[in-house]
């Protein structure tokens, strides 16, 4: 209604003297957002979130600076600040070359862990972003990620006769497709009967969790065959594991999964900005009515956007299984929050490929730095720090939301079905 | 109501918005028991002035006097308390609630202190509607009564709140000529009972018919206040526009060819499951403009939707140049040669956050040269945008400007450019000039006539009789989903207006 | 909108729609007959009645009542399938699962947090603000309820639960205030704001919980001073009613009051009319002098308080402990119940009972079928929610302005 009045009063008005020029105002806002706001906003948001979380640390009598320092030390980001000239071995060869950083330092080992966690975060962030560009709020990244990992475990522990390359590719494809189909349920429901994706994807998350607990629980179909009392799956076959290119093979070195995730970022950018599908998705996201009037099938866009989003998340799950987890336990399933971290990373990264990369790295570092194995419990309890991370995510979304409104301007959202 | 001067006085009202001087030192007064018309084009500042009077805006300068006392109107509540009531152009009624609920909202009769007394509410509504001759059913839901009745509810709402001054903002815009006559009866009855009325309009004949005095605004300034008795349409028009204008489109006689679009026995069901188009048949021939006149909501939108493939007909056929397209999707209808300028460019015509390049490619993006094998060819899209922006004289933006940044007229040029560039056989123009200024209207009209002369079939759907009469080569009138009559372009507004009401059958039933 | 009322207005007992509804009922009957106490042991009975249901459905579909008709066909098929399974199960298994009084009592227990969430959501959404933060508000209430009850128990003794309810409600209202500021004043997208609050609620409650009770969990003796049950001894002899209503938690009875109160408030008081007007057409409300912002603030904050009471019931009246993220999507199910119930109190209550029943059933099934299948049955309420959101309420229309920030002129 406000728009109508504005329209009557300003836009069409050949009123006194100079014609009104809301375009200058508007153009400058958009220009500013593009040039500076795109980076400045998220940075301010992040700093603010960390400051407020620091207050929460101080409240329970800990020194926030010390805590953040300890978290930072565990992230491995300090790796980049030790320049030198080191002889390193090229991955997958016996050649040695000179390099600026010491790739076998303790910091390097920490960085490997950070990047391992960053990998699925990128994928889950893409799951939110792709749907978001179509005007859908996919909170179901967690469920889609879990379903992807279930299928990767199943394929990885079955089909052992496959050649190693085929086997790992099969694992990833199965995980990605499973995620796509799973998210596709919400997409179909949205496209056909208009069921709101927020409710359906949250419910699908819980269904994925319980199905997983059943699959990997005692006497579950995917429980291991040797120890019936332990609710955990078999290890996937060696051929279903991704090659490790950095760090120890047996102690969670960094697999090439990170490059697959980076590839997914590129694919995301390409689809959104350079393909007709992305064009349709963006048109529907900004204004479904206008998209419909120009012949775009809104229902098809909703379904495809959800399916592709789920594909990214499912791929993330499969990358985790084939990259370092190799097995899945019943207890891991409800404890996993990667999908939600991806959600926060996507919003902080403003749904742009570069932004998602930076934000995923930030959250990957934060998760790794606060993990039980990196954070010294005498400085700060890791389970406390875990909740601190969730608070930071919440604050980030809360403050990023102040900007997001503009991005959603076209898709007036109503929670109705 | 004694003769102690005007009941309401606005002195030196000035209101600025970023980049606009909407009201420039306006003086206005209203005598008790008179109808004072406020005349002006779209955007002349009438709505701003009335929103100030209703407490929605605060003026930057100037003062408001009520019965000689200076008053501050910081909110609508204050305006209501001072006895000022407003009937908005877009009704402020809640569709899912009843007439009574809408009328008593915010000053509800109660029993036991806290409970809403529905009985008393209905009683008060009946009492008021009898006193002022405004028949309504208090228990009817707003979305199930006619527009004319809704307007009565709006008036009753103001009277219920004890309004002495009533502001009617473009009240006849949504009414048929006959409904407008009924409204004038109501206004005269209110006037005779001592109410003072400000009647906002841009229709000269109405103003002369109903008003005692007429004030004219132009570009935010008050031109003059004259007595209606001594004024003529010509004198008012000159004041309103500042020059002699007659919206006449220069066009050659048409040379209609083969029918390009035929609609046969079309029946359409709307979203609510009601049959809104009954057995409609029509033909649009190459090289002619067929105008479809009708009051809003008589099935026009659904008819267009079906032709454009956005909705499927219950029965009947749509034939485009010999091909049956009744069961095609919107995409295929467009590809086969339907061009569509939708009636609401913000909601349907444009993706506002998209750049002009993207908006201009909204049809063409899907095929070569704008895309190859699913990948967009950005350079080709850009070339198209540059060419069209120049060809259609779109100002205020480059190809990378978001469409939201353009003025309404330029936005409509973008829509027009896209649709015409797709080289359609049939061009549907739904309300193509709504809300545009005179210059933009002329541009759009010229382009439509050009398309006709280029041998396309143009199907113009408009609520503006003037537009229909000046552009069309043939005119059909739609009423309650039926084509009720056909007229040549020499028909008068009165003839059309009569047909548009379909012999005055009462729709409320 | 109008179509719905038009159809309801024109309801006739022999209309295709009515026949479709009978079909759905027959489908349920087919299953019910195979359960105790009737426990028909022949497959023929459920198959016969299920086929009747499907027939009714097909008849309705043929007469253009597609939605209800397909519902009847599905209900018939489900009735046959479930009835078949039930007749194939041992009577002992059936008896241990289907104890109607225990099932109904458990249904009420599981439905109660949902009711509080849904009614909280009703106020919020009726004012035009979408509230996906109900989940977080429940969780906040659950934690702060148990935190205050433990603290208050040291000085208020057996009445600590009163303090706990106040504490929980205040905490929920505080969280809701953020939602109000963000969505009403700052005009942030309401779903994003709600999602952020869900994160904050998990993080903050988890953080304090770990800090306070991280090593051993909340104390085990909360059972002794939690929100009390109401014992109605005079009912003890009445079959079915006695076991269901004889010993219910105070908060369950309060939820009934809340329902009635909400119905009266929303539809029979001036304030309810204003609330609805703000949610339907805020500008219209504004032009008659109702403050849209104030109304929305009050409604959102009230919704936080009400939802938090449901959380307090969950932790202090039902499970008597707290765990990280213990609400497990209940808030969202409550939201779905609200949509299912078309934003009206009593239909919404019906929906919460349906979801509560599925939880109760999922809880009892492991008795007969072992833990492994029991785990899978835990997914039942969530599946049912999706079906509900997708199926029946496809055309449920909410407050027209829900989700849109109001821009004052």
Description of the molecule:
The complex is a heterotrimer of chains A (417), B (509) and C (409). Chain A has 15 helices and 4 strands. The two termini of chain A are 23 Å apart. Chain A is mostly helical and 417 residues long. In chain A, the strands form 2 sheets. Chain A has a two-stranded antiparallel sheet with strand order 1-2. The relative contact order of chain A is 0.17. In chain B, helix 14 runs parallel beside helix 15. In chain B, strand 11 and strand 12 form a beta hairpin. Chain B has a 6-stranded mixed beta sheet with strand order 6-9-10-3-11-12, sandwiched between helices. Chain B has 17 helices and 24 strands. Chain B is α/β, with parallel strands linked by helices and 509 residues long. Helices cover 74% and strands 1% of the residues of chain C. Chain C has a two-stranded antiparallel sheet. Chain C is globular and about 60 Å long. Chain C starts with a helix and ends in a 19-residue tail after the last helix.
Largest sheet of chain C: 2 strands, antiparallel
Helix-residue proportion of chain B = 25-40%
What helical percentage do the residues of chain C reach?
over 70%
Number of strands of chain B: 24
Strand content of chain C: under 5%
Q: What integer value in Å does the Rg of chain C equal? A: 23 Å
Chain pair with largest interface: A-C, 62 and 63 residues
Q: Report the total helices of chain B.
A: 17
Tell me the major beta sheet of chain B. Answer: 6 strands, mixed
Decide which structural class fits the backbone of chain B: alpha/beta
| Strand residue content of chain B | 25-35%
Distance between the termini of chain C: 29 Å
Strand order, sheet with most strands of chain B: 6-9-10-3-11-12
Q: Could you tell me how far the N terminus lies from the C terminus of chain B, measured between alpha carbons in angstroms?
A: 40 Å
Q: Low-confidence stretches of chain C at least 5 residues in length (pLDDT < 50)?
A: 1-10
Protein structure class of chain C: mainly alpha
What labels would you give this structure?
heterotrimer; A: 417 residues; two-stranded antiparallel sheet; 4 strands; globular; disordered N terminus; disordered C terminus; C: mainly alpha; two-stranded antiparallel ribbon; 2 strands
In short:
The complex is a heterotrimer of chains A (417), B (509) and C (409). By secondary structure, chain A is mainly α. In chain A, 66% of the residues lie in helices and 3% in strands.
């Amino acid at each position: 209604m406000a728009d109508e009045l504005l329209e009557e009063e300003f836009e069409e008005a050949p009123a006194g003297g100079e014609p009104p020029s809301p375009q200058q105002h508007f153009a400058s806002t958009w220009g500013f957002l593009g040039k500076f706001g795109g980076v400045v906003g998220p940075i301010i948001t992040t700093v603010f979130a960390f400051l407020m979380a620091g207050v929460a640390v101080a409240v329970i009598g800990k020194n926030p600076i010390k805590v953040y320092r300890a978290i930072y030390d565990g992230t491995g980001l300090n790796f980049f600040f030790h320049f030198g000239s080191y002889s390193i071995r090229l991955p997958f060869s016996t050649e040695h070359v000179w390099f600026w950083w010491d790739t076998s330092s303790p910091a390097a080992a920490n960085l490997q862990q950070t990047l391992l966690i960053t990998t699925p975060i990128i994928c889950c962030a893409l799951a939110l972003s792709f749907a978001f560009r179509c005007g859908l709020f996919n909170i179901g990244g967690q469920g889609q990620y879990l379903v992807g990992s279930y299928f990767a475990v199943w394929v990885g522990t079955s089909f052992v006769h496959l050649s190693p390359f085929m086997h790992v590719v099969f694992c990833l494809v199965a995980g990605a497709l499973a995620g796509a189909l799973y998210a596709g349920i919400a997409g179909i429901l949205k496209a056909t009967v208009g069921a709101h994706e927020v409710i359906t994807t949250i419910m699908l998350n819980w269904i994925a969790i319980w199905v997983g607990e059943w699959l990997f629980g005692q006497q579950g179909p995917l429980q291991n065959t040797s120890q019936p009392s332990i609710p955990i799956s078999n290890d996937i076959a060696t051929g279903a594991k991704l090659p490790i290119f950095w760090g120890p093979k047996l102690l969670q070195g960094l697999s090439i999964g990170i490059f697959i995730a980076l590839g997914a970022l590129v694919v995301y950018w390409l689809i959104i900005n350079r393909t007709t599908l992305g064009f349709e998705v963006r048109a529907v996201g900004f204004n479904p009515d206008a998209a419909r009037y120009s012949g775009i099938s809104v229902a098809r866009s909703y379904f495809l956007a959800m399916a592709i989003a789920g594909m990214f998340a499912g791929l993330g799950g499969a990358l985790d299984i084939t990259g370092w987890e190799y097995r899945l336990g019943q207890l891991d399933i409800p404890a996993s929050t990667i999908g939600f971290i991806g959600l926060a990373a996507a919003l902080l990264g403003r749904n742009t490929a570069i932004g998602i990369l930076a934000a995923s790295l930030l959250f990957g570092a934060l998760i790794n730095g606060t993990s039980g194995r990196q954070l010294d419990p005498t400085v700060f309890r890791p389970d406390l720090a875990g909740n601190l991370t969730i608070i930071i995510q919440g604050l980030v979304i809360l403050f990023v939301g102040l900007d997001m409104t503009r991005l959603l301007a076209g898709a007036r959202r109503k929670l109705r079905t | 109501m004694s003769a102690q001067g005007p009941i309401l006085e606005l002195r030196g009202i000035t209101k600025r918005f970023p980049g606009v001087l909407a009201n420039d030192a306006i003086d206005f007064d209203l005598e008790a028991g008179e109808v004072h018309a406020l005349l002006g084009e779209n955007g002349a500042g009438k709505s701003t002035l009335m929103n100030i009077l209703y407490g929605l805006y605060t003026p930057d300068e100037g003062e408001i006097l009520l019965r000689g006392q200076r008053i501050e109107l910081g909110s609508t509540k204050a305006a209501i308390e001072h006895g000022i009531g407003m009937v908005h152009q877009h009704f402020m009624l809640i569709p899912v609630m009843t007439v009574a609920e809408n009328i008593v909202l915010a000053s509800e009769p109660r029993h036991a202190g806290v409970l809403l007394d529905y009985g008393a509410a209905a009683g008060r509504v009946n009492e008021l509607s009898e006193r002022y001759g405004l028949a309504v059913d208090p228990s009817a839901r707003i979305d199930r009564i006619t527009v004319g009745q809704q307007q009565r509810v709006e008036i009753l709402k103001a009277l219920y709140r004890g309004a002495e001054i009533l502001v009617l903002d473009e009240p006849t815009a949504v009414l048929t000529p006959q409904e407008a006559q009924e409204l004038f009866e109501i206004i005269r009855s209110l006037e005779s009972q001592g109410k003072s009325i400000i009647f906002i309009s841009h229709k000269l004949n109405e103003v002369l018919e109903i008003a005692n005095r007429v004030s004219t605004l132009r570009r935010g300034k008050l031109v003059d206040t004259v007595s209606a008795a001594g004024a003529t349409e010509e004198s008012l028009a000159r004041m309103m526009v500042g020059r002699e204008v007659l919206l006449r489109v220069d066009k050659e006689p048409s040379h209609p060819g083969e029918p390009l679009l035929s609609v046969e026995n079309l029946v359409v069901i709307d979203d609510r499951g009601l049959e809104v188009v009954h057995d409609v048949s029509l033909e649009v021939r190459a090289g002619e403009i067929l105008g479809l006149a009708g009051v809003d909501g008589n099935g026009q939108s659904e008819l267009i939707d079906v032709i454009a493939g956005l909705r499927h007909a219950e029965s009947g056929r749509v034939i485009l140049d010999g091909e049956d397209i009744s069961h095609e999707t919107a995409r295929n209808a467009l590809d086969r040669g339907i061009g569509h300028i939708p009636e609401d460019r913000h909601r349907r015509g444009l993706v506002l956050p998209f750049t002009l390049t993207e908006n201009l490619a909204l049809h063409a993006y899907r095929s070569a040269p704008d895309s190859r094998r699913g990948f967009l060819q950005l350079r080709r899209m850009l070339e198209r945008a540059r060419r069209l922006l120049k060809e259609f004289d779109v100002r205020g933006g480059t190809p990378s400007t978001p469409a939201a940044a353009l003025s309404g007229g330029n936005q409509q040029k973008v829509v027009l450019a896209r649709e015409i560039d797709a080289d359609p056989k049939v061009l549907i123009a739904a309300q193509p000039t709504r809300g545009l200024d005179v210059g933009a209207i002329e541009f759009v009209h010229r382009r439509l006539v050009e398309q006709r002369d280029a041998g396309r079939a143009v199907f113009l759907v408009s609520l503006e009789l003037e537009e229909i009469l000046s552009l069309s080569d043939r005119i059909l009138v739609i009423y309650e989903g039926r084509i009720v009559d056909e007229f040549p372009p020499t028909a008068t507004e009165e003839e059309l207006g009569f047909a548009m009401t379909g012999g005055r059958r009462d729709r409320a039933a | 909108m109008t179509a719905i009322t038009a159809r309801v207005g024109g309801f006739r007992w022999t209309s295709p729609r009515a026949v479709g509804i009978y079909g759905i009922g027959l489908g349920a009957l087919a299953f019910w007959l195979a359960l105790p106490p009737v426990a028909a042991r022949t497959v023929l009975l459920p198959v016969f009645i299920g086929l009747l249901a499907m027939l009714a459905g097909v008849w309705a579909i043929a007469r253009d009542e597609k939605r209800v008709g397909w519902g009847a066909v599905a209900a018939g098929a489900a009735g046959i399938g479930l009835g078949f399974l039930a007749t194939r199960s041992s009577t002992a298994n059936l008896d241990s699962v289907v104890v109607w009084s225990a099932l109904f009592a458990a249904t009420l227990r599981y439905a109660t947090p949902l009711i509080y969430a849904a009614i909280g959501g009703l106020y919020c959404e009726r004012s035009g603000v979408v509230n996906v933060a109900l989940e977080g508000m429940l969780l906040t209430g659950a934690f702060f309820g148990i935190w205050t009850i433990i603290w208050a128990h040291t000085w208020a003794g057996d009445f600590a639960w009163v303090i706990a309810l106040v504490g929980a409600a205040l905490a929920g209202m505080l969280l809701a205030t953020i939602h109000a500021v963000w969505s009403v004043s700052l005009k942030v997208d309401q779903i994003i704001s709600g999602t952020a609050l869900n994160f904050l609620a998990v993080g903050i409650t988890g953080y304090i919980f770990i800090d306070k009770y991280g090593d051993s969990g909340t104390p085990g003796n909360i059972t002794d001073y939690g929100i009390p049950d109401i014992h109605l001894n005079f009912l003890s002899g009445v079959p079915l009613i006695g076991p269901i209503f004889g010993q219910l938690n105070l908060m369950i009875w309060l939820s009934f009051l809340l329902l009635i109160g909400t119905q009266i408030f929303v539809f029979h008081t001036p304030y309810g009319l204003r609330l609805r007007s703000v949610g339907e057409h805020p500008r219209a409300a504004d032009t008659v002098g109702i403050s849209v912002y104030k109304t929305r603030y009050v409604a959102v904050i009230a919704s936080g308080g009400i939802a938090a009471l449901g959380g307090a019931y969950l932790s202090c009246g039902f499970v008597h402990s707290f765990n990280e993220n213990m609400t497990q999507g209940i808030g969202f199910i409550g939201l779905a119940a609200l949509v299912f119930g078309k934003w009206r109190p009593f239909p919404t209550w019906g929906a919460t009972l349906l979801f509560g029943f599925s939880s109760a059933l999922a809880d009892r099934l492991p008795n007969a079928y072992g833990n492994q299948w029991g785990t899978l049955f835990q997914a039942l309420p969530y599946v049912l929610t999706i079906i509900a959101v997708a199926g029946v309420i496809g055309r449920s229309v909410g407050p027209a302005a829900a989700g849109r920030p109001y821009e004052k002129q």
